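Structure in, sequence out. Go:
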């Protein structure tokens, strides 16, 4: 079974958690796209939901597929968000942002009663850190910010501590939907994700980092022999 098929079966399972009348946060990335396509099929068959998109790309896809959308500021709350992840550890801590949407993804996950993460089994790791940690920064002074981030990574025991400015296809810096840059930070391992998250938040110029801690309520893993669900003990 390919990784893409595993992503699709995880997305199919997530549909079971969607109820009529819900406001649903729609994630970004190839796994989330499976979920959006499957949700759209339910909408065509009469399911009534409102989507809140985590990126312009996701909004375009959802609109194209006929899912009614609202902006985050137009809804009173979000019942459920379904999104992918780049890494998930046994405590359901995540690295996200491979698709560059981490800021809006985090805002929408934080505004949701429940965040369901859908992944293929290659995303399960222990410890976090093999996937370069995306950090969204303001363009002004990004090299100074980058230096501070590398110092923070070193202090928190990340062996890699290198930050690379993400580029768009044309050699210019990649810009997020909010007009920021992304620094992809090689860590190798992140021994203390909470301590690193706290330290990163204190660096001027850092808008958001890709560590999602205590946010996932449930992770659905697509495996060759079916899906497995891991539930968080509590949602902080
Ligand atoms: C986008 C993300 C994605 O959820 C993450 O990159 C996983 O992507 P994919 O589902 O394509 O493997 O965080 O910012």
């Amino acid at each position: 079974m390919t990784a893409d098929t595993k992503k699709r079966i995880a997305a199919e399972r997530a549909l079971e958690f969607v109820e009529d009348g819900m406001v649903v946060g729609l994630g970004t990335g190839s796994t989330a796209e499976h979920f959006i396509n499957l949700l759209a099929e339910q909408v065509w068959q009469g399911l009534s939901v409102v989507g809140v998109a985590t990126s312009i790309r996701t909004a375009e896809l959802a609109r194209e597929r006929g899912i009614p959308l609202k902006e985050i500021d137009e809804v009173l709350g979000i019942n459920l968000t379904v999104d992918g992840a780049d890494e998930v550890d046994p405590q359901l801590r995540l690295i996200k942002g491979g698709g560059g949407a981490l800021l809006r993804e985090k805002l929408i996950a934080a505004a949701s009663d429940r965040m369901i993460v859908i992944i293929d089994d290659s995303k399960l790791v222990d410890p976090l850190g093999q996937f370069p940690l995306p950090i969204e920064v303001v363009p002004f002074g990004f090299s100074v910010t980058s230096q501070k981030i590398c110092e923070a990574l070193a202090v928190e025991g990340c062996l890699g501590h290198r930050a690379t400015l993400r580029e768009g296809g044309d050699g210019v810096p990649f810009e997020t939907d909010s007009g920021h840059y992304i620094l992809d930070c090689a860590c190798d391992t992140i021994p203390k994700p909470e301590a690193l998250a706290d330290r990163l938040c204190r660096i001027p110029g850092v808008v958001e980092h890709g560590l999602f801690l205590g946010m996932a309520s449930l992770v659905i893993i697509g495996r060759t022999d079916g899906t497995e669900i891991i539930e968080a003990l509590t949602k902080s």
